[in-house]
Design goal:
799 residues; mainly beta; 5-stranded mixed beta sheet; globular
Length: 799
């Protein structure tokens, strides 16, 4: 749920009014219903939230960082079936599908407080770390995880460069699965049905085998029909078809506990729901002044442009190049030659001409003929060993291996013509080992942790690009080896005042072997077989020490203030996509942030009102952005920026079954210096995908039925202010601010063994884009529209 942009006294006034309204409604309805138990406290107090943001279990309100945490039950209440749903109720978080220059429907763009990354290629690292049971997920492809057997999800804002380390320059999303339990058999079943043949089915079981041995098994299938029609093959883009499974085995004997897990995901989908919004025919080679055209060989005429093949062939714009060639080979007047005004789109009735006749966003159609699909096979295994060496010292080992095979392709011009078509084969495997030694000293006045981390990744990405003037193979083999050592300690100076210090040293070694050459010159100047980059392995080493200092004052049991300074680091990499050919493989430098944060965490009204506020200032250097060099989308260092903002998060459970949540976030990001080579940017450029304001509001009321059971209506509203979909700030991809309304009503049996939920997503049928992509070299302006209003019914049972 999202407010329109509200500032200062207006925002404070609306927040107070919202709380006052719910309080009044509670007083009026209280005699008619019984008080609801919302947690361990029957008075309706908020439940205690336990987090592991500092690698040990702590109360959320006693953890002095900006963090949003949700249990599995919380996620279910919010209709969060996939990880990207978090962005609707976590301030200053962007987490969305973003295929970008590829066709993967499972690629995630993740930004926290304006820091992140959207590209999927293995020579570029994400800026927000996603961790599954303590294991870092290196690739953004496949990271749009379905949330099944979840214990909790934590979103840690700001650089987590000490304890989480690798590529958490913007923050971390920490996902913890349910652990096998020794106490008894338990199971959960769920099925959701809804719009466009939506059908999700999932099951989870906990099975104790012995007093010290237990196993959990979970499986789920998530399916829904597409919503952007592709008439050429009768398929619909934007569908889901995912099979997920996980098994975990836990053994505990005395001071030793072992947890072994295996998970897998199989996806077979038609690809992202791209449709063409428009076409840009801008060219610096052909008629840059947009003058009316005269045929080749014409006498010069003032105010006109005489076509001069082949010298003025617009190879910097493939849409225009198609129309140029079609006109010259007598396939029709696809340039509007002889018209009183410049018409590069030519004749829309001529199938040889490319132009806005293929823009079918309003009808949600894609007229492409190049087959589109997005197939993923992912699996991983992890072994976590916890050893209590003594009462106050413990050792943890996390050993993990993950494997990804992903094939995806799409028709980037959304037409029967060959303007811009992409196909990728990505294979990635990673191995990691982390050792954590932690303990308490000096009568628990000092809590400390130290450890080492090793990470190895190898990837093979073959990227076939078929453009109007040329077809080529891009990509190659890449590898990363990373070592890190870290330590952090918290010392209680008094019973209220504590200071925390930590540091991490990271050393990344990266290599890249380009395997790329021309497949079909199409009569151009580069013969078949011409290498785009020398087939020579290149290497770079990046290292950085990232410190952190925090001071926290627990003024009383319900009020804490804190201040933090921290640094974050993300290593550089190599430019994988190039054209025309280059004599050497280009690279880009690491990026760093220095973050200053102050905050307060409070509990009020007998533990029924929780209000947490954090403010931050970030200095962001050598920002890695996706821009265009010649005709290729590349990652380069864009310059420096400063980011200011805050998060406001509150939950209120006043009793009688009421629950209210009000959240707000501000991310004010501005460039302060532009790298001389980043000529596409300027000091007025806006960050890609980053909204200045995010708001959410939720209200629910639980009624206890006279015959037993519970009825709970809930309304969610979220707002995200305007943003650009790319670093180029393409006007056609500008997304105005929008709000989304969701509503549901649930019934639960007296013991909550059974339940039914009926709801609406995007209840007001708001039009907005999920993602957008513009390639100046192709001229195509593509968007993924939203589905629109959806209904769903969920059946659930637990034993």
């Amino acid at each position: 749920m999202r407010f329109a942009v509200l500032k200062g006294e207006r925002y404070i006034g609306l927040t107070a009014a919202a709380y006052s309204f719910v309080l009044a409604a509670t007083v009026q309805s209280a005699p008619a219903v019984e008080p609801l138990t919302t947690g361990p406290n029957s008075s309706g107090a908020l439940e205690e939230v336990v987090v592991t943001a500092r690698k040990r279990e702590e109360n959320l309100q006693a953890t002095p960082i900006s963090i949003a945490a949700f249990s599995g039950a919380d996620l279910g209440t919010r209709d969060a079936a996939r990880i990207d749903a978090l962005a609707q109720f976590v301030p200053n978080l962007v987490l969305q599908e973003n295929p970008g220059a590829g066709g993967s429907a499972s690629n995630a763009a993740v930004f926290i407080r304006g820091v992140g990354q959207s590209d999927f290629i293995p020579t570029v690292d994400p800026g927000v770390g996603i961790y599954l049971d303590g294991v870092y997920l290196a690739r953004s492809v496949g990271s749009l995880l379905d949330l099944m057997d979840i214990d909790r999800v934590e979103v840690l804002r700001g650089p987590q460069g000490t304890l989480f380390g690798r590529n958490t320059i913007g923050g971390a999303v920490n996902i913890t699965s349910l652990k096998p339990d020794f106490s008894g058999f338990a199971s959960k079943l769920g099925a959701t049905f809804g719009t466009a043949n939506h059908a999700d089915v999932k099951a989870w079981m906990n099975l104790p085998i012995a007093s010290d041995l237990a196993v959990t098994l979970s499986v789920g299938h998530f399916g829904q029909g597409g919503y952007v029609d592709q008439p050429a093959d009768g398929e619909s883009l934007g569908n889901t078809n995912t099979l997920v499974g996980r098994a975990a085995l836990r053994w505990k004997s005395g001071p030793l506990e072992v947890l072994f897990s295996v998970d897998g995901t199989r996806t077979r989908e038609n690809g992202p729901a791209f449709t063409l919004r428009g076409v840009s025919f801008a060219s610096s080679i052909f008629n840059p002044q947009h003058l009316p055209l005269l045929p080749p060989g014409s006498l010069p005429l003032p105010g006109h442009y005489v076509v001069n093949p082949p010298a003025d062939a617009p190879v910097d714009n493939f849409a225009l190049f198609n129309n140029y060639v079609a006109t010259l080979v007598n396939a029709g007047n696809c340039l509007g030659i002889g018209a009183p005004t410049y018409n590069p789109a030519g004749d829309p009735a001529n199938p040889a001409c490319y132009g806005p006749q293929y823009a079918r966003e309003s009808s949600k159609e894609n007229l492409g003929t190049f087959p589109s699909f997005s197939d993923d096979n992912l699996w991983g295994t992890a072994l976590t060993i916890d050893w209590s060496i003594a009462d106050d010292v413990s050792l943890r080992s996390i050993t993990a291996y993950r494997h990804l095979n992903s094939d995806f392709q799409r028709d980037g011009d959304e037409s029967p013509l060959t303007i811009y078509q992409l196909a990728d084969q990505l294979s990635d495997r990673q191995f990691s080992e982390e050792l954590q030694l932690q303990g308490d000293s000096f009568n628990q006045a000092l809590k400390w942790i130290a450890g080492v981390y090793y990470f190895n990744e190898k990837a093979d990405n073959a990227n076939t690009i078929d453009f109007a003037p040329i077809e080529a193979l891009s990509g190659g083999l890449s590898a990363t080896t990373s070592w890190a050592g870290f330590a952090q300690a918290t010392y209680n100076l008094t019973s209220q005042l504590s200071i925390t210090g930590g540091a991490r040293y990271t050393r990344d070694s990266k290599t890249f072997l380009p395997i790329q050459y021309v497949l079909d010159s199409k009569g151009g100047p580069f013969p078949d077989g011409t290498p785009l980059l020398p087939e020579v392995e290149v290497q770079r080493v990046f290292s950085k020490a990232t410190p952190m200092v925090n001071i926290a004052d627990q003024l009383d049991p319900n009020f804490m203030i804190y201040a933090t300074f921290s640094e974050g680091f993300k290593s550089g990499g190599f430019t994988q996509r190039v054209f025309p050919p280059l004599p050497a493989t280009p690279s880009f430098n690491p990026e760093t942030v220095r973050s200053y944060e102050i905050g307060l965490k409070t509990i009020w009204l007998d533990d029924t009102l929780r209000v947490n506020i954090a403010g931050f200032h970030t200095d962001y250097d050598d920002i890695q952005v996706q821009i265009f060099r010649d005709v290729a989308p590349v990652t380069a260092n864009g310059g420096k920026a400063r980011i200011n903002g805050f998060e406001f998060e509150s939950q209120w459970a006043p009793g009688a079954g009421w629950r209210l949540e009000v959240n707000a976030g501000l991310t004010d990001a501005r460039y302060t210096e532009i790298d001389p080579d980043a000529t596409e940017l300027n000091l007025s450029s806006k960050f890609a995908l980053v909204s200045k304001w995010t708001y959410s509001l939720a209200v629910q009321k639980q009624f206890t039925l006279a015959a037993g059971g519970y009825i709970t209506p809930r309304v969610d509203w979220s707002y995200r202010s305007s943003y650009y979909n790319d670093a180029l700030n393409t006007p056609a991809l500008f997304q105005p601010g929008y709000g989304l309304l969701g509503a549901s009503v649930s019934w639960d049996s007296p013991q909550r063994a059974y339940g039914v939920v009926a709801g609406l997503r995007n209840a007001l049928n708001k039009d907005y884009t999920l993602a957008g992509y513009f390639s100046p070299s192709s001229g195509t302006e593509e968007v993924i529209p939203s589905r629109g209003r959806e209904w769903y019914v969920t059946l659930k049972a637990q034993f």
